[in-house]
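[Q] Does anyone have a clean structure-token version of this?
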Amino acid sequence: MIENNNLIITIGRQYGSGGRMVGKALAKELGIHFYDEEILRITSEQSAVGEVFFRLADEKAGNNLLYKIVTGLKPQLGKPSTDSDIIKPENLFRFQSQVIRELAEEEPCIIAGRCADYILSRSDVDYPGLVKIFVYADVDTLIKRTMEVDGLDEKDAAKRVKKINRERKEYYRYYTGGNWEEWNNYDLIINTSCIDLEQTATLIKDYLKLRNKGK
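[A] Here you go.
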């Protein structure tokens, strides 16, 4: 197996936890790229499939969720198809997985969501520098941050938090067969209910220092 020593940080994040903002701030401090929705644009350009298709499928389960859950089946991470099934959710996921692997192979970076932790853990390349992080918060904090960032009232913010986090959970289960909130999947789990986002970024940097000292 090929070994790649790039520092690759994946961030799974509940909606409203501040994970995206933490990722952007941390990337700036470390001097590396942060990839979130940019992955959709890059994947669209490489695949010649309209970006709208990737946006419609972004962090949402495919069309056969119940069947996948019952049977335990999950899409293969192999080469994407360019045939008539090119815009099927499973194939779009393969295109996106390919881009995530290429980004990780090319440069140190931070990748938000999109099952990147799972994809890179099952790559043909070994990433000793892969750090898998999950950021979450209590429900009140999730709602409060969503109200502030999205400009919603409490009722609408609560609905958005519930809907998007359910979609992310189902998406992860659909494409990995695993539990999005299974802490054993991650190296570092951070509750941002009691610390601000700057402190969260500092906590991750301190963890990276301690991790490197242990090698």
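[Q] Thanks! Anything notable?
[A] The beta strands are 2-3, 8-13, 33-35, 109-112, 125-126, 130-136, 188-191.
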